[in-house]
Structures are given as C-alpha cells and as structure tokens.
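User: Structure tokens for this complex, please. No commentary.
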Amino acid sequence: QSALTQPASASGSPGQSITVSCTGTYSDVGAYNRVTWYQVYPGKAPKLLIYDVDNRPAGISIRFSGSKSANTASLTISGLQTEDEADYFCNSYTTSNTYVFGTGTHVTVL
Amino acid sequence: QVQLQESGPGLVKPSGTLSLTCDVSGESFLGDQWWSWVRRPPGKGLEWIAEIHHGGTAHYNPTLRTRVTMSVDRANKQVSLSLFSVTAADTALYYCAKHRAFSFEVWGQGTMVTVSS
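Assistant:
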C-alpha cells in the first residue's frame, strides 16, 4: 500500500490559518470516514487530534478541524500558535483492513 | 487512564529478530479492544505495522506481512511484536497504541531499536 500524500511543509504566522491536505485513493481516504490526524513533536509520542474525519477528542483545541472531499482529507489549524510547530500525519483505514499513514507535514510558525 | 510502556533490546544485529513488548496498565484488557504497533525511522514518517484484537485476530501491513508477527498475552496484559530478518531499514522508534474504533487513541512513549552489527 502506498502512503497517503501530504505536502512536506506548511507555514504561517501566529494568528493565521493553515490547511494541510492528505490525498489517498478510493481504497482508503475515499472509502470510509475513518481518517485521523496526529500531531508529533520530535522524539515524542503522537497525539490524536482528529478522528473520523472531523471529530475532536476531549481536550483538543477547537482551533484544529478536519474535513474530507472524495479522496482528499484536510486538517485546518486556525489561530496558529508557536506551540503548533510540529509534524502532522494523517491516517486512514483501508478496504484491506489495514491502516496507512500520510507522508507527513512539518508545520512552521513564522 | 490506560498507560502503555514499550520495551525492547535497543540493538539488533542484521538478519536477526526484533522482539518488542508493550505493557498495558490502568486498563482491564477486556472487551472489544484493538492494539497496534507503529514505527518511525529517523528522519522519516510514521508507518503502521500491525494490529491485533484482544481475542487474537491480527492484520498486518502488506509490505511487512512476511516478516512480522503480533501477539497478545491477556494474562500478563501485554502486546508483543516480532520482526524477522531485520535490516538497517528497520531502525526506528517503535510505538504501541490502543485503538478507539479506527483511531490510535493512546500511545506509549516508544522504544528505539537500532539494527547494526
């Protein structure tokens, strides 16, 4: 299975909004509403930000939101803050009963 | 609150077997529960390796399927991973994770494994 495609990097100034895309196929992103997003700081455990495309777990800031259209999912970070500087990965369940991660996006706060 | 703690050898020789254990605490380890292993090679992205249900059903990443086995020990509340015929490409930070439906809700801190002679 091929990794989902994400831009290698994204950036924005504090207070701005940025959107990170995650493109897959009809066998993964397009098949189900089972897309998740994770925030990863270097050497740390990933943190679940979004599940089932657009749901936030308890304790996750409303600044993080998710959406999906066809085979592409998106993560939007609103009101960018310095602590948002991290790596972000999407993930999708697939029609083969497996999971596939995105290539990852490094977000820089300018 | 469930906590996960991975443990492993740290260093494995090429062509050898990498064996990792994930200890689960703060959870009854019963019910309709799935667990996964995920890894991150240095400077690269996350890669899903495998998942297992507490009842024993497992699914594997197709690219690793011929070299990996995942198991669950309900009595000791452990989830284990074995990766065979390792190469330098298997050098990574290995995480175990507890599912919530189709998401990886809780993660361990990870254990670093280096494949080198």
